[in-house]
Amino acid sequence: MKRKFTLVALLLPTATFAQSSTSSKLFYSLMGFGIVILVFLVLREVVMWYWKVNTIIDNQVKLIRTQQETNNLLTEQITLMKGYYQPDSINSPERTPTKEE
């Protein structure tokens, strides 16, 4: 079916061009080509709606935005943790807190 539609879409402007008079060959060729493009655009929107491609793309954009926000928050947390835990204080023994403290 798809192959037949493609063949018809390709041959429609040619058939229109061959059957018209000399003065209107260009006009009918452009009309046929314009109709083919219009049908393609309409069918493309129907396919996108049926398979919910636009919804999937919107969801992916939301996921990417959320992932970027999470990455920014994690980077911020890491920088705060680096300031709190100094590398030399982790390895060096410190006095242990007593019950009085």
UniProtKB/TrEMBL annotation:
It comes from the Bacteria. This is Uncharacterized protein. Residues 1-18 form the signal peptide. The chain crosses the membrane at residues 28-51. Keywords: Membrane, Signal, Transmembrane, Transmembrane helix. The lineage of its organism: Bacteria, Pseudomonadati, Bacteroidota, Sphingobacteriia, Sphingobacteriales.
